[in-house]
Amino acid sequence: MARIIFIGGGIVGLTAAHLLGADGHDVTVLERDAAPPADPEAAWESWERKGVNQFRMLHFFQPRFCELMTEAAPEIIDAMRAAGGLEMNPFRDLPAEVTGGEQPGDERFDTVTMRRPVAEAAIASVVATNANVAIRRGAVVQALLTEPGAGGIPNVVGVRTDAGDELRADLVVDAGGRRSTLPALLRDAGARELVEEKEDCGFIYWGRHFQSSDGSVPPMFGPLLMPCGTVSILTLPADNGTWGIGMVTSAKDAELRGLKDVDAWMRVVKTFPLQAHWLDGEPLDENVAIMAKIEDRHRALVIDREPVATGVFAVGDSWAATNPSVGRGITIGAMHAVALRDTMCTAATDPVELAQQWDAATKATVEPWYRSTLAFDSARLDEIHCGLEGREFVPDPAYEITKALLSASSKAPDTFRAAMKIVGMLETAEEMLAEPGIFERIVELGGNWRDEVPVGPSRAELLAAVKG
């Protein structure tokens, strides 16, 4: 069994550490934020995680996350349920005329979803019981310890913390999330530059959370994420009778920056007939939470089959991060965590071969989801900018079928089911479209999406609501 150090103890780092500890590896998690996790009941109010800029923004746990953890670590799902996580399944919760009713195997669409602080506290409580995992909070990694490796490639053999502690390991896993400093750590260790794709995703989020008095959540009259002209609206149910509402706009849309004002934000949400009733609750935050300057980022540590360093992996958002509007980040991270566990089950003894093995596993399991999310976001942003600038929007073929599917999903159970497979991350678009007859069905029911009027405000109504 290996000695493994994790840099970062967020949800993905904790989950991966737990899986590896359960397999018998000796795992240490170094988390820079010193504050210990609160009890899940108090996490929203009292737990400060300054190292996670989206800690109190809207979150959603997709069915694929629930499916993965139910198989790999059911105690995590049990803890989320015990902390008040909301159990959902569209084929159980929505009318049969929409879904076609339940079918054998529809448990794949089960999910348990929560606000981020409550979920992380619940997961941390599980990891704390793992005898093979030690968590050190308030420990900042300042340097990677290296030894000369094959062909002059640095081989990472541990880390040095800000307290001066030198910790040795067979493998260092960076799970530092969106704020990961891995490139600088590698550069200081003498590694050649990794390949990093990085660009502002171009979106701004404006969100608030609410809670009911009776533990219920608002009924769903529209999708969790609904594009409407130059904006999108998110309505995400969560734990203990809470939910989040978010507006997603282009960073270039100066006319909607008034959404930072609570009254303006409330007026805008009220203009959406399918979502206005989500305002009927007690606000959990006084102000509008804003998340901007979000980077789409992808890092490659193996270039032309040669690693920039051995003995170090990147996982989750440290490896790649995208605009979070489609709610895939934590689930992609969980997929990556399971892939890491599986890689270490058959780990090569040669450090270069192990780095290549992890690179191949990453490309096979999570790279397709990252690329498809990036393509969707880029097309949606172009659609928004065309609306702002009065240009004709001409989508590429992939986004054309996406728009047709979104349109068709509300018109028949078979297309609804097809859409839910992608939304829940249970199948890629390519896998879903390979099913006999489904492409033709989507085109038949959704091919006229351009002619449909969104169920929401016009641009003029949005601007009037912002101005009051």
Describe the fold and architecture.
The chain is of the alpha+beta class and 468 residues long. It has 3 domains: 278 residues, FAD/NAD(P)-binding domain (3-Layer(bba) Sandwich); 89 residues, D-Amino Acid Oxidase, Chain A, domain 2 (2-Layer Sandwich), CATH 3.30.9.100; 60 residues, no CATH class. Helix content is 37%, strand content 21%. The chain contains 17 helices and 21 strands. Strands 11, 12, 13, 14, 15 and 16 form a 6-stranded antiparallel sheet that branches.
Supply database-style keywords.
single chain, 468 residues, alpha+beta, FAD/NAD(P)-binding domain, D-Amino Acid Oxidase, Chain A, domain 2, 6-stranded antiparallel beta sheet, 5-stranded parallel beta sheet, 21 strands, 37% helix
Specify the CATH class of the largest domain. Answer: Alpha Beta
Number of separate domains: 3
Looking at the structure, what is the overall shape?
globular
* Helix percentage range: 25-40%
User: Major beta sheet, specifics?
Assistant: 6 strands, antiparallel
**What is the CA-atom radius of gyration, in angstroms?**
22 Å
CATH architecture grouping of the largest domain = 3-Layer(bba) Sandwich
User: Alpha-carbon distance between the termini?
Assistant: 63 Å
Number of continuous helical runs: 17
β-sheet strand percentage: 15-25%
**Low-pLDDT residue intervals, each spanning 5 or more residues:** none
CATH superfamily label of the largest domain: FAD/NAD(P)-binding domain
Fold-level CATH name of the largest domain = FAD/NAD(P)-binding domain
Q: Which structural class do the helices and strands define?
A: alpha+beta
According to DSSP, the number of beta strands is 21
Overall average pLDDT: 96
